[in-house]
């Protein structure tokens, strides 16, 4: 197992190198001059040139690249021009916020979508099948900023059940000491149940917004894959040997049907992690998606490069995790180490 | 037979609700099975034999239901029983074994656990102290070597025959009274088939169980059943003791089936129904054959005349001296799983430490002459498919020579070989007529495909004319050319595959079990068609098959392979009539021989 993990990580290195090169070139190819942006609209040409020189943007591309990779090798992702903070530190703060939100959203989504998909598959054409279809279609066709705004309007503005959508914690609480970066877990570790409650109530609306959106692919995939497995020969054998319906559906059908569902989960997760800028905007969530978009608008190279690289690493790790999970569920995969 | 049969199916009708309305898959079927009796249900695909057995178990899918009649199993009305009563019946009183054993087992669950699942469901807690031991015992009874180890195996780690033994163990774990075996040996090698059938018989006899054997193979039914029920299109056409039915078949359909079954001492023509065998003797009957084929399902014409297109073998006379295909010391090696990883080879860190090698084909030599058909037989894993793939240049050989028509093609890269004009001289007909056709191509498009790639016919009309000509040649009604594969029958799809293969006037056609997926009556027609085409077009065949009876009929010479080596080769009569090698003899004796006196 360890050799498998090591091998997979080794194989990821070339693609990471590729990501570094491509993002570096792409950011350089973008229109917009970071020096001009940084100097401000009133700056003279000399001032802009001076800043450009200071930032090293006057050097040839290859030299810039060598310096960038050298910094990268020392764990330095550069400094953001707009905030003046080191990119690595900002990503470290913001990534857990995005990850916590996405994970909770995904958990909510799984808890609803998988049973829904299984029930829909075992009773095709029944009311629950139609419910599944309607929910998933509605969920995927409503844009997240819209569902987010509706939720805020109903639960904050109308009903007043949830706190103001302003970040990860109510202003009256201080963040729990950082262990994992996930406020919910950190608060539990610190036994600060008030902070936990506050963090949770801030988290629930954006998480539900994400869940509604990600319901569709998961439920649909569960249903389709369950239908395929239920029609397979070994399920017929199980039924012909008189096993109880529960046993047939859970042990025989569901475990086999999980394989494509897990793949879908990983895709949905990595997609949501970087792409839920709109949700982060609506709920003033300090995540990495909004960070990257703001940096991109400002032609701020370092954060964009840092963001893309982080996402690439996340992708590699996630895929590895999925492959390990696959191996746990499906013994046939284990051989191909 | 006892006064009250164990299973009594009377007047059974099963309906399926489909998009095109209600379809009656089984109509007014009467079958009874006495205690300890073995009854065979024989019929071709679509005869309703499997549906009947599913109705007995009440495991029809959602769309199917028992519309009329009754199924009584030892006093229990299966039609009226509750679902939980049925669940107690299944596995404990009636159990079933299926075709394709590998798919019939849960791929991600240890086989031992799957047997335990059944035990847990049916056996009282108190009765069994250790279910694991019972499961191992069940594996032992089906003669699985090292049952204690195999208990922890997953289905993909076992061979097909082994998987079928596990399925049998699963079915017999709770000592049922009735075993339904649905094509239990289809897809298994003949020797495995014999072992599995003997095992079933031995186990059921010892337990005084009743058995229903569902099969398309008359020989198998005759060899193992007390009584045989013949079904056609959802109806029972004949029921009799197996000795009687083979000695004196009453119904026309039974006679037709028996005629079509390949066996010793008959020629290809004998397989066809009498009136067609006569018509094929006079090849001038082509016009009528076409009319008939257009009117009927298209499974009748096999009459093929000389190809109107010129034969592409002007060099024939000079070539007579050398064989068309010469294979010398052909070897194909595969590295064993996990021997050297890609990475270690990539970085070259570890020198390959005695890389373990599996020889799929181990230095074989043979030749095929012009106009000759050679059978390549052996059981699965013997390397016969690998050999045919290498001759097709779909695989690279490790060493050895493949000389085709005077040129060493073995050294040519597969990519460039695909574009050589010589490529058109070797064509292939694949095993599964359905899977080998692109579902999005019409029959005409499929047939035209090789011509468009390598042929010299250009222009829509010319191409269409050629397709129609080829369709007539293989007896495919021209009006079916615009249909898609799913709209064609198995026999028609096989014809499309053959028409595609002969579209470029190849000199050598490799036939990879072309009739394995077909019913016997269709197989008889297709085999005759192949024979006629060979004669009229002067082609050579390399016929890859595991069915010795079919090889005997079609091939001039036979090559018997085992574990990558040739154990015996020679003329068909010689090898199959008077085998020298022990393995060939074993293969021949494993074929179930029906007592078939053909009138």
Automatic annotation (TrEMBL), chain A:
It comes from the Bacteria. The keyword Transmembrane applies. The chain crosses the membrane at residues 9-30, 101-122, 134-156, 199-219, 257-279, 307-329. Its main location: membrane. It is a multi-pass membrane protein. The keyword Metal-binding does not apply. GO terms for cellular component: plasma membrane. Residues 95-326 form the ABC transmembrane type-1 domain. GO terms for molecular function: dipeptide transmembrane transporter activity. InterPro entries: BPD_transp_1_N, MetI-like, MetI-like_sf. PANTHER family: DIPEPTIDE TRANSPORT SYSTEM PERMEASE PROTEIN DPPB-RELATED. This is Peptide/nickel transport system permease protein.
